[in-house]
Design goal:
The complex is a heterotrimer of chains A (about 140), B (about 250) and C (about 130). Chain B has two domains: about 100 residues, Ubiquitin-like (UB roll) (Roll); about 130 residues, Fumarate Reductase Iron-sulfur Protein, Chain B, domain 2. Chain B contains nine helices and seven strands, in the order E-E-H-E-E-E-E-E-H-H-H-H-H-H-H-H. A five-stranded mixed beta sheet of chain B has the order 2-1-5-3-4. In chain B, a hairpin with a 2-residue loop joins strand 3 and strand 4. In chain B, helix 6 crosses helix 9. Chain B is elongated, with a radius of gyration of 21 Å. Chain C is mainly alpha-helical and about 130 residues long. Chain C folds into two domains: about 80 residues, 3 helical TM bundles of succinate and fumarate reductases, CATH 1.20.1300; about 40 residues, no CATH class. Chain C has a two-stranded antiparallel sheet. In chain C, strand 1 and strand 2 form a beta hairpin. Chain C starts with 18 loop residues before the first helix and ends with a helix. Classes of the chains: A mainly alpha (about 140), B alpha+beta (about 250), C mainly alpha (about 130). Chains A and C meet through helix 2, helix 3, helix 4 and helix 5 of A and helix 1, helix 2, helix 3 and helix 4 of C.
Chain lengths: ~140, ~250, ~130
């Protein structure tokens, strides 16, 4: 009987009776905000910092330490970097966490560990980016 | 003139004899206008009377004859054998639902869920016949109309992997109908329905795969019903203390 | 009376069963690149706080082909994310009305693409225009 599992109807009926408000709105709001940021901003940001900067296109002087730190230590630049980094993390790691369910990890301690690592990393990245950016102001 | 034939491979399951389902192939003659449902009826009438499947109206209204055709959820009454020729067809019962026998699935879970969402207008105050009907403008009607087109055929449940992975999820059609009543200007039952929306089993089991809206034969967009209610549920979550009875519209 | 013994089919490997699911999983996998890139950028910000040498070492490391390939893949993933995000956004947004006329999903998608191109052009202009 390994392959066959019976339909889980008793579970269904009990869950209909005791509906619990989910805390998912907190994570979904951050995921959604991050999704918007990643969609509108990330392609250009990746092109600039990941490809143009290391390849020195159009010219290496554009990516000097002076120019980069001037950007990061301005209020607008720091806010921009904070939003891009922290919300991208909340977006990406929320999806990674949900994928673990899709790939067959439905419950149990392993799922709790994945959840802790995903949201912990997002929270840690948020705190660190705020700390470093404020320090640079 | 010899008639064209096509091979139909059917997933068979007899709960009294079979440990698990297996495929059986039938050769079925067909014409240009032969629907997949008619192909199955040919098998039942001419080749094997024990083949079990549901059907009723033959014209995309009753929602009884949904099956997987080559892995895609479809109504068999409005799918035609000619479109699969010269290949063959593999017909299975709707995915993610328990197989009762052959191509018939157990619909109990959906029917219970449909009941749980209060799929009827709950007016603020009942109106007597003398007071006349509840009036609605075309613009108000437009806000829910597409969701009311649902025929409960369950193709969207067969399309939804999240329902397949965890059948506690209320699912696309039930949520589309929940949204249909919540969006109706004559309805005042939102407070009764929001606890379902707000639960993990409500909108939060959905990851917007979006296949439900692709397969719907009636042009309903269940994915939008579920995901617009994520916004409603989020507003409800954060603003519930400010506006006691559901701030979201 | 017949015995009931409903049969549940296993879900293992569900995402390989349909091209639609396969594309969905590709969409979800963009999150891995978004995450890794954000961590990489976070590290870059950290080097700025350390000083010029650390920043220049980071920039030099990014010239390694492995990083160039990673960022090319991350760019592709971000573009795929943007494309899929704009396309499903109308499903998650409350229906928009101009007067009594419903704004079509297609219009909402197109407006997002226009904003995307304008915002990207401004960012590239400011960063690379000197």
């Amino acid at each position: 009987m390994a392959e066959q599992s019976m339909p889980n109807q008793s579970l269904n009926q009990s869950s209909q009776r005791s509906l619990k408000r989910s805390n998912e709105p907190v994570f979904w709001a951050l995921f959604g905000a991050g999704g918007v940021v990643a969609a509108f901003l990330l392609p250009a940001v990746i092109l600039i910092t990941g490809l143009a900067a290391p390849l020195g296109i159009p010219s290496p002087e554009l990516f000097s330490y002076e120019r980069a730190s001037a950007f990061a230590s301005s209020w607008a630049g720091a806010l921009f970097l904070f939003i891009v980094i922290s919300l991208s993390l909340w977006h990406g790691l929320h999806r990674v966490y949900h994928s673990s369910h899709e790939l067959g990890i439905h419950r149990g301690p392993l799922l709790s560990v994945i959840r802790l690592v995903c949201y912990g990393t997002a929270l840690g990245g948020t705190v660190l980016s705020a700390y470093w950016l404020i320090a640079a102001l | 003139m010899t008639q064209k034939t096509i091979d139909i491979e059917v997933l068979r399951y007899n709960p009294e004899k079979d440990y698990k389902p297996s495929y059986q192939t039938f050769e079925v003659p067909f014409a240009d206008e032969t629907s997949v449902l008619q192909g199955l009826q040919y098998i039942k009438d001419q080749l094997d009377g024990s083949l079990t499947f549901r059907w009723s109206c033959r014209m995309e209204i009753c929602g009884s004859c949904g099956m997987m055709i080559n892995g895609v959820p479809n109504l068999t009454c409005s799918s035609f054998l000619r479109d699969y020729y010269p290949g063959k067809l593999r017909i299975e019962p709707l995915s993610h639902l328990p197989i009762e026998r052959d191509l018939a699935v157990d619909q109990t879970d959906f029917l219970q869920k449909l009941e749980s969402i209060h799929p009827y207008i709950i007016p603020k105050e009942n109106q007597s016949v003398e007071e006349g009907p509840f009036k609605q403008t075309p613009a108000q009607r437009e806000r829910f109309y597409q969701y009311s087109e649902c025929i409960n055929c369950l193709l969207c449940y067969a399309a939804c992997p999240q329902y397949g992975l965890d059948s506690d999820f209320l699912g696309p059609a039930a949520m589309a109908l929940l949204h249909r009543y919540n969006s109706d200007s004559r309805d005042d039952g939102k407070a009764e329905r929001m606890p379902i929306v707000n639960a993990q089993e409500g909108v939060w089991a959905c990851t917007l795969v979006g296949y439900c809206s692709e397969v719907c034969p009636k042009g309903v967009d269940p994915a939008s019903a579920v995901n617009r209610n994520k916004v409603n549920s989020t507003l409800d979550y954060f603003f519930r203390f400010m506006a006691p009875k559901g701030a979201a519209e | 009376m017949a015995t009931r013994r409903p049969y549940m089919r296993p879900m293992a490997g569900w995402w390989r069963r349909n091209p639609f699911y396969l594309f969905y999983m590709l969409r979800e996998s963009t999150a891995v690149f978004v995450t890794l890139y954000a961590l990489q950028l976070l590290y870059g910000v950290y080097t700025l706080t350390v000083g010029q040498a650390a920043f220049e070492a980071w920039l030099a490391r990014l010239q390694h082909p492995v990083y160039i390939v990673f960022h090319a893949l991350a760019l592709a993933a971000a573009l795929l994310h943007a494309f899929t995000w704009f396309n499903v956004a109308p499903k998650a947004m409350p229906a928009l009305y101009l007067g009594t006329r419903r704004v079509s999903d297609r219009t909402v998608v197109r407006v997002q693409f226009v904003i995307f191109f304008v915002v990207s052009a401004i960012m590239l202009g400011v960063a690379l225009g000197g």
